[in-house]
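Quick one: co-fold with cytidine-5'-monophosphate.
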Amino acid sequence: MKIAIDGPAGAGKSTVAKAVAQKLNLNYLDTGAMYRAAAYAMLKRGIEPSDRTAVLSALPSLSMEIVYDAGSQKVIADGEDVTPFIRTARISKGASDIAVIPEVRLKLVDLQRNAAQHYDIVMDGRDIGTYVLPDADIKFFITASPRERARRRFLELKETVPEADIDEIERDIIARDKTDSTREFAPLRQAEDAILVDTTDMNREQVIDFVSGLIAEKK
Ligand code: C5P
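Sure, here it is.
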């Protein structure tokens, strides 16, 4: 079974995808982590993720591997486990910048399709239903208002980043959505056959129950 979960930044896709994968005993692939890892690896080499020429010349030597580890996922880029380092605002922006480059996407999409060939999988991202797995068994497009997405992110960050600012988070989210939905190649878009889930007024459990209920009906 192949399940596609797409949507804009901070909509809670990963939380839902992970929970659904656990509940239904499927593998889970967070494709955003792969774009984040690519941005991180480029920055480590001194390359700006938005510098298309430099990224293209480094791309053939970029290695990436996904390791499934007790229900969660690790991303190994250029031989390093980058998982703990890819959740910063700098890397979010870098991921969105590098994701515009079609050659980067093709390289990562290959790995994503390869994973889907080998496992029953829940995959979350921006272009899973429209481009990576157009034949997925079921597709969801999970969204919420930008303010609500910023509020959730703010609550997550507040403990560890006391200077977190909800307005700044909202601006970053809106900017990233714009880059993601206006790029030419495989932009963020709801697939025609995707089920729209607006989670603005739903809590985590309600979203998980709703999504896994629909998947169970399909099985
Ligand atoms: O989902 P996450 O916020 O971790 O994704 C980081 C960035 O990676 C997104 O803003 C988007 O630019 C890019 N991305 C993408 N296609 C995907 C997954 C993520 O372009 N399938």
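If it helps, Residues 102-118 form the longest helix (17 residues).
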